[in-house]
What we know:
Blueprint: H1 3-23, H2 84-91, H3 101-108, H4 116-119, E1 133-138, H5 140-143, E2 151-162, E3 168-178, E4 190-194, H6 206-212, H7 227-233, E5 237-241, H8 253-270, H9 272-275, E6 280-285, H10 287-302, E7 310-316, H11 322-325, H12 335-346, H13 358-364, H14 373-378, H15 399-409, E8 419-424, H16 432-444, E9 449-454, H17 458-477
Helix pairs in contact: 1-2, 8-10
Amino acid sequence: MPIQHGGFWVRMCVAALTVTVAIGGGVSTAAAQSTGSAGGEGSVGTGSLTDGTASDGTPLNGTTLITGSLGTGSFAGSPLGSWIPAVVDGVVPPPSGNPDMDALRAAMLPAPLGEPFFDEYPPELPGMANGQVIEARDVTATARQLLRAPMREVRQFKVRTTDAVGAPAFATASLVVPATPWPGPGPRPVLVNNVPINGLGRACTPSYTLAYGLTPSTNPIELLRPVTSMAEERGYAVLVPDHEGPRMAYGEPFVAGHAILDTIRGMRNLYPAEFGTSKLAMMGYSGGSIATHGAFKLMNSYAPELAGDIVGAALGGVPADFEMLTRTMDGNLAGGLFLAALFGISRERAEILPLANHLAQRLGVSKLKDQCSSVLSLAGIPGIPAEALANVKQALDSPVAHELYQKLKMADLTSGTPLYIYAGGQEFWIPALGGRNLYEEQCGHGVRAVYRQVPGEHFVAEITGKSGAFDWVDARLRGEPAPNEC
């Protein structure tokens, strides 16, 4: 492709992304493919088209606009990858001098909301214990308008936690307690509902919605999720962590895992008599499964005192292997969320920032840094690949990238609780192969686990798989032993 044509393409992509950030909106679900992923019904074997590899497991070059199923949307492994960074330099002139990485990172953080509960790091944070409650507030009056079942109270709290590299941070969460008295036996159980936030701004969190009602930042899918209502019908309390942390590190499992475990500790500190010995279970799908994945793998080392009381974790559509996603999500309709996750991870993993070109730096300090799922989803329409935002060729195949893939996969860590993992057999963006591999990984560590492949692609599979996942969690909270199909 001639350079001048490439320049036109990049200009169109940048213009489209600018419009995306300005207007917001949603994204349509792509048509499902007929083939499944490896490891379940409808499987076509390891290296199926749904994980972006050839039949021998080698990465394919090129992609389809909708599914990305033919390989790397970044063009990193194709001849096209060599001209994208140069074209960006010709369209968006680079600034003079080298950017200050610390200043860039600070400018890329989410903007304050003007609400201390979500914004402020208290000065005494370094001396506090993980899970120690910083403040709490009642939001029942507003939350009652959004939740279906009658409730006794909805209480939000803020606790001390740690970020991805162990520095002091805070996390917020909302606890929903139903009005129905718990008949027992034992204390009222708690379902930890890790909803997929999939956003970069602090107003994208479920706690912000529960405190302030519906806003343009509200995740529309969040309101349709029946998990909280299903749990309330059983009489369970529901803990909803804002698991991306104060930096809104979308896609970073260490931040999310710490936030979940510390908000559980905070809930017990607030309600020692009612929830101090309660049984707990976790659920998460898609972006929420990244958080759940981090929590159950960090439990043994970070919060071992909780391991005996967290009786199970159910997760579906799990992006457990980020390297696989570079072949299935980048440069297609899923690319907006893929790039947003790279952005979110870079807020905690500063080693990514030197790979960002000046276009990425400009976008990183723009209004894009505070957008939520609906706008970020629409940002996939232009099909901008990660390569267009990097200052090196084949950025997704660089040493920095491969080191991060290994860290975020957390493959050497053992779950502290039994697992139920499910995935759609017709998935093309987050292949079922990733979930199956996670199941086999944890079976190898001796964890009691179940894997289910359900009909549908990513959006349909949540619907077809949710009831089975909830029934499994419900059985654990009723005291039934976890089955093992390893």
